[in-house]
Amino acid sequence: MFKISELCKMFNLSRSTLLYYDSIGLLTPSARTEANYRLYSNEDLLRLEKICTFRKAGLPLDEIKQILEYEDIEYSNILMDRFNQINTEIQDLKKQQACIASMLKNNDFLKTSALITKQTWNKLMNSAGFDENAAKKWHTLFEQISPSEHTIFLESLGLSRAEIEEIKQWSK
Fold first, then answer.
1. Is 129 helix (H, G, I), strand (E, B) or coil?
2. What is the distance between the alpha carbons of residues 36 and 56, in angstroms, rounded to a whole number?
3. Which alpha helices (H) appear in the chain, and where do they start and end?
4. What phi, psi does 2 have (nearest 5°)?
């Protein structure tokens, strides 16, 4: 039997995540101690492994619960739907990328308009799945391909000269 803390370490999950899974009936512990602590069996561990795999694929918890509760459910259809959703999201991101590239080519447009603020840009990048490392790679590539347009873009975000120089320095 495993304690909640042990499962958290094994799967790199927070305690609150496992408590939530219990509250919605997704992963209920097989037993409890006399002090009412949750205990998980090997079978629970395998179920959590499946849950984590389906989460990595981007499936929502309610669909994962359906898959696990109804063993005869054809989950390949659910996975195909998710696969198609991802393809649509990728196409949407490519359109956004093309739009940004088009704006970057039009220097006069960028010089005369405040497209978005630095904070808004960061929120957009984060919501598109860019973490700090991905953002740094993006800036580095932009700097390598077109340093002057990179500068113009950074100016359009309203960054100070010092911030621009700092970004350009580490992106070289």
1. coil
2. 31
3. 4-11, 15-23, 42-56, 61-69, 75-105, 107-112, 118-127, 132-145, 147-156, 161-170
4. -115, 140
pLDDT digit string, tens, across residues 128-138? 888 888 888 88
The pLDDT tens digits for 136-145 are 888 888 888 8
Residue 99 is which amino acid? Answer: C
115 CB burial (10 A radius; 0-12, 13-18, 19+): middle
Domain with CATH 1.10.1660.10 in the chain: 2-54
What pLDDT score was predicted for residue 114?
A: 56
CATH, domain range 2-54: 1.10.1660.10
Structure tokens at 110: 């960028």
pLDDT at 80 over 90: no
Q: If you ran DSSP here, which 8-state letter would residue 14 be given?
A: -
End-to-end CA gap in the chain: 52
Cβ atoms 55, 11 nearer than 8 A: no
Tokens of 121: 């840009």
Q: Output the average pLDDT for the chain.
A: 86
User: In the beta sheet, which residues pair with residue 2?
Assistant: 40
